[in-house]
Amino acid sequence: MTYVIAEPCVDVKDRACLAECPVDCIYEGNRTLYINPAECVDCPACEPVCPVEVIFYEEDVPQHWARYTTINAEYFDRASTRQGEPLVVDGDHRLVVRLPPQSSHKKDIALFSVRKEEAADADLWFPS
Question: Is the pTM of this model over 0.90?
Answer without folding.
Answer: no
